[in-house]
Amino acid sequence: MSGEKLGELFHHDSTIFDPYSLFSLRSGGPQGLDQSGLPQFSGFLDYLQSSTDFGFTSSLSQEPFGLIGDRHKVCKAEPRATENVISSVFAGGGTRTMTANSSVSSSSTEAAGEEESDKNEKNEEKEQEDEDENKDVKGADDGADEDEKAKTVSANLMVQFCLINFLCVWRNCFALILLKNLLFATRSKSRKKGEKRQRQPRFAFMTKSEVDHLEDGYRWRKYGQKAVKNSPYPRSYYRCTTQKCLVKKRVERSYEDPSIVITTYEGQHTHHYPSNVRGSSHMLANQQSSMPPSFHHELFLQTLTPPLQQLNLPANYHDLLLLQNSIHPSFINSNQP
DNA sequence: CGGGTTTGACCGGCGC
DNA sequence: GCGCCGGTCAAACCCG
């Protein structure tokens, strides 16, 4: 994966989100502090919960993203996007077993609070407007802190898409997800006074796949396609087909590594269950609606355990399963085989 | 016929 | 102000 091209797609700051500390892919696993003095987390959820500042600020950057492989580069900044990027790269296809150095990913995100200081100053007023707009849009909100809400929404989105990719891995017999550079910024910086459209939180995935449009359980309608500058591969625009659901997603292929698909989600689904899901998920959805939360966990275990074990994932990947309480129920159902 | 895709046109933001 | 570019629209088309 080349950083230069992706740098045009994703914003970079010095923040590095180390996936190995999440998944304990490094030998020795998470214990105390790592070499950079960073706290280690027993799992993804711990990481989220222990980080009240989802910006993963500069201390994390002391240790470069620990991917093995010379193709890894850190992306440059994209000045405009307001995206939370999770990069997930599946090593190889078929029944290939994942190894750490067979997966390469590169992505980054931006966070409003982590822009360069001068830009922050410039955008301070604008961001204040954004906050005001957010309040207007949310309307009936009870006045809770907007940033906290945004972080919560972003965290939920991130978790959803993380697991979406996990299930995609399983479904497609791919390998591993690597996460890094998880940042939270939900406010648009490009909004004109009065009537700029509001940007939803965005997450971008990089997925090694031969299929452009990965099944994620939701139904999407393609509403546009654009040629991407400096890339032979077009970018496709999709909208969730469910009425009143404003979630969009962009799908494009990295031109320097055509095997990698970059999927960017924007917004959050407003419906509990994917409408008209292809396949046989309706029954599961109905079942789920009357099931206690504990069942969801078991469902996940049943779903994920065999393939993930086959993929030699770290033992504490079960931590991810604990995230199911934060996952949209439809996601669970929609990814049943 | 309904729903999804394609594709050229259009619009708005942004940098110069 | 102008041009570039990303994002969206909508008519035409396709398909089951």
From TrEMBL:
<dbReference type="GO" id="GO:0003700">
    <property type="term" value="F:DNA-binding transcription factor activity"/>
</dbReference>
<dbReference type="InterPro" id="IPR003657">
    <property type="entry name" value="WRKY_dom"/>
</dbReference>
<dbReference type="Pfam" id="PF03106">
    <property type="entry name" value="WRKY"/>
</dbReference>
<keyword id="KW-0539">Nucleus</keyword>
<keyword id="KW-0805">Transcription regulation</keyword>
<keyword id="KW-0238">DNA-binding</keyword>
<dbReference type="GO" id="GO:0005634">
    <property type="term" value="C:nucleus"/>
</dbReference>
<dbReference type="InterPro" id="IPR044810">
    <property type="entry name" value="WRKY_plant"/>
</dbReference>
<feature type="compositionally biased region" description="Low complexity">
    <location>
        <begin position="100"/>
        <end position="111"/>
    </location>
</feature>
<keyword id="KW-0804">Transcription</keyword>
<protein>
    <recommendedName>
        <fullName>WRKY domain-containing protein</fullName>
    </recommendedName>
</protein>
<feature type="region of interest" description="Disordered">
    <location>
        <begin position="97"/>
        <end position="147"/>
    </location>
</feature>
<dbReference type="InterPro" id="IPR036576">
    <property type="entry name" value="WRKY_dom_sf"/>
</dbReference>
<feature type="domain" description="WRKY">
    <location>
        <begin position="209"/>
        <end position="274"/>
    </location>
</feature>
<dbReference type="GO" id="GO:0043565">
    <property type="term" value="F:sequence-specific DNA binding"/>
</dbReference>
